[in-house]
Amino acid sequence: xxxxxxxxxxxxxxxxxxxxxxxxxxxxxxxxxxxxxxxxxxxxxxxxxxxxxxxxxxxxxxxxxxxxxxxxxxxxxxxxxxxxxxxxxxxxxxxxxxxxxxxxxxxxxxxxxxxxxxxxxxxxxxxxxxxxxxxxxxxxxxxxxxxxxxxxxxxxxxxxxxxxxxxxxxxxxxxxxxxxxxxxxxxxxxxxxxxxxxxxxxxxxxxxxxxxxxxxxxxxxxxxxxxxxxxxxxxxxxxxxxxxxxxxxxxxxxxxxxxxxxxxxxxxxxxxxxxxxxxxxxxxxxxxxxxxxxxxxxxxxxxxxxxxxxxxxxxxxxxxxxxxxxxxxxxxxxxxxxxxxxxxxxxxxxxxxxxxxxxxxxxxxxxxxxxxxxxxxxxxxxxxxxxxxxxxxxxxxxxxxxxxxxxxxxxxxxxxxxxxxxxxxxxxxxxxxxxxxxxxxxxxxxxxxxxxxxxxxxxxxxxxxxxxxxxxxxxxxxxxxxxxxxxxxxxxxxxxxxxxxxxxxxxxxxxxxxxxxxxxxxxxxxxxxxxxxxxxxxxxxxxxxxxxxxxxxxxxxxxxxxxxxxxxxxxxxxxxxxxxxxxxxxxxxxxxxxxxxxxxxxxxxxxxxxxxxxxxxxxxxxxxxxxxxxxxxxxxxxxxxxxxxxxxxxxxxxxxxxxxxxxxxxxxxxxxxxxxxxxxxxxxxxxxxxxxxxxxxxxxxxxxxxxxxxxxxxxxxxxxxxxxxxxxxxxxxxxxxxxxxxxxxxxxxxxxxxxxxxxxxxxxxxxxxxxxxxxxxxxxxxxxxxxxxxxxxxxxxxxxxxxxxx
Length: 806
Hints:
Structural class: alpha+beta
Strand content: 25-35%
Radius of gyration: 39 Å
Largest sheet: 7 strands, mixed
Helix content: 25-40%
Number of helices: 21
Number of strands: 44
Shape: elongated
Distance between the termini: 87 Å
């Protein structure tokens, strides 16, 4: 929100300095982002007069001009197509610095002709984007006057960061009200600023207006007030109005347009002027018809939806309610009769229409945040007065439909609540004074409590806590007492308990032990990406009001986000990336369908080439090792855990698996599907894992001490076996079968070779294992070892169909 110091002082009677105003604005929550003193920027620029303009003898696109600065004539070579003798212009003499590019103006010869200075365009002066020609000033511009003074650019511009809840301060008058309440001056009443708001009604207009909404949509536009003015002369705005708008970066267009912009910024009251002669029949405010179109003032044609408000006549939509007018009925230089519209449009309808149509306008900015519904007719009267004073004409009686909303909210406010919530002890009289200055009406009051009526322009006030905030904001946050205590204060880390504590341990393990970098990504995805990472039996959860279409679906997996991060790193010369994230996924809209998932991803090489080792790409077993390390922090061993190959569709069907807890998947790991990577344009190997924490069985530990580890003094015995099995048999099934023969004696089963080739039938493989047998009570005899070995052979043959390889 931008405004000038002089504009503010039109509404605030104050002797405070710019510095004091700036400090107070920030103190009351209207943070000052920047103060621009443009008198310094334009200190060397002056109003000049083009006395003479002739064609350059050696260049068709250049002109030789003689510019008078009020005292001296200067020869200037100018290439602007609109330069002409008799014009008043902005002249930059030698030594000036051009604001747009920082270039210093120097005396030079251009195609053999001397040039001592420059005639400036609006773009070069940073006043607008208009660069097609020079800036031509009005005929009354006095040559030799400071350009900054003539344009009103010596008035400091203040820019504040306006939070969405403070819609009332989207107008300069609302900012002045806050400063007055904070003791920095006196707010001038509207009646004092505009002493002649009693508009003479010269005729009765035959223009009629109607609100045409069903009961379900009556709130879309609850009030319309307007007047017809006949005999206006639309031309350039007066100098003071141009200066005001130009100072804050708003380009002056014409008097009628400038008046609407001025009132919008001054009083947070958007208006629209229609050329009354271009309207046909009754003006109807209604919902648009499905696929109804309108050519708007931004020269774009929009297709409307049936939940959007339009102002229409017999020819169709003439404006998008609360957002933008239509080109068909816009005012121009030939406009003589106008209809001024001042209406109240519902914030939700305005916001939704603006998002769908992708339109940003000053009107939309204000209506979607909430304007004062009680100011509709006052804003209309201010507009009428300005039009009559600047453009002339005669006004009709008020044309009205509906009535102004009265959102008066009653709040019972106990004065003691301020101290209770903030520690600030402020007597009831001082609190009442602050609230009344902010516009609150005190219906009843005593020393203990007050009955307050919230002003119509404060949509953000909802209860007692908001009243406390208002009092404290104006009184001063710096007045909150600082309590000093001698008690020892100990700052502790956040206490994690139960499964949360174990998840934190898993985070530490993945980062410190496994070397993965933690990431934090959006919980949203684009629909196209979501479709690639969606479970077959799960419907995507769409966002009703997304930030953008590319972030409109809740993720069912964190893998695509990590994959995008890996691709971004690869594109920037970092192909080997290891990432993980712990966060929710969304398989539904209830808490039990939004589990916390530990997700990791590795791309590129696991280890790079060295003098001792060859480069090795990440594979499914690296992801499996990450899973095993993470699950170990939960006290879970995967040694005897069943593995399923029925993994989600984004995994490689032959190089992925998932550990199961009963029928529930616990952890998925493996390579990503090559078809998926090809579809995404990824040409490097990627492995990933996902641990679904809600499927991890968890019980509170009753014992804190771990059991003793018993070591045997007897020598373990190792025996090697090689079994021939069908190729489809999982090696893990062989390991589990061998381990189950004697769980007391067999302490380890290690696979050291898997072979296919000469000596092994087609469709079969040879799996070689080392079995460790640990005696417990006595040394095993040869007969004991042979008997146990035979049991191993028999069990493998019985359960997985393996035979001992000869």
